[in-house]
Amino acid sequence: MTSSRAEDARRRLELAEQQARREAGEAQVLIDEFVAEARRRGMPTVPLKARTLDGHLVKTDKRGWYLRQNHSIAIDEDVGYHYLVVPGGFMERIRGVQLPGTQPTLVIGRGGRDGETGYLREFLGWVLEGRVNQKD
Fold first, then answer.
1. What's the Cα-to-Cα distance from 108 to each of 77, 82, 100, rounded to whole Å?
2. Please, which of 20, 50, 101, 134 could form a disulfide with 84 given CB 3.0 to 4.6 Å?
């Protein structure tokens, strides 16, 4: 029996989604451990800010720790993982934004060319070491 291209594509998509869920589960364990350690050390959280697609900085409804120097990814105090680039316009600049949770990954900046890519475990360690600027 031969399978169609559509069936093959559907199966590849299912496998990729399963892999992404497995990876997110592993990443969430690391995030949970990070937040527990940050709390144990008494590391303060900061109000998280996001950048709109047109480049404006806006307040969010979360507090946490930035993972990257450019403040584009953060962990919130409720162990959520967030990309901090959001759609928005004038009203978002006034009101701020509510950050949706994002499925975490084990590799930060996968496929990016900005030079700030690596393993989630490393980024979390750098925050614990104080190597990531937490202030705007």
1. 19, 12, 18
2. 50
* Sequential DSSP letters for the chain: -PPPHHHHHHHHHHHHHHHHHHHHHHHHHHHHHHHHHHHHHTPPPEEEEEEETTS-EEEEEEEEEE-STTS-EEEETTS-EEE-EE---HHHHHH-BPPPP----SEETTT--SS--EEHHHHHHHHHTT-S----
71-122 pLDDT, tens per residue? 999 999 999 999 999 998 888 888 999 998 899 999 998 766 656 789 999 9
Q: Can you tell me the distance from the alpha carbon of 42 to that of 113, in angstroms, rounded to the nearest whole number?
A: 34
Q: Which residues contact 116 (CB under 8 A, 6 or more apart)?
A: 68, 69, 70, 108, 109
d(CA 50, CA 71): 8
| The residue to which tokens 């979360």 are assigned | 62
Collect all residues with Cβ–Cβ distance below 8 Å to 11 and sequence separation of at least 6. Answer: 3
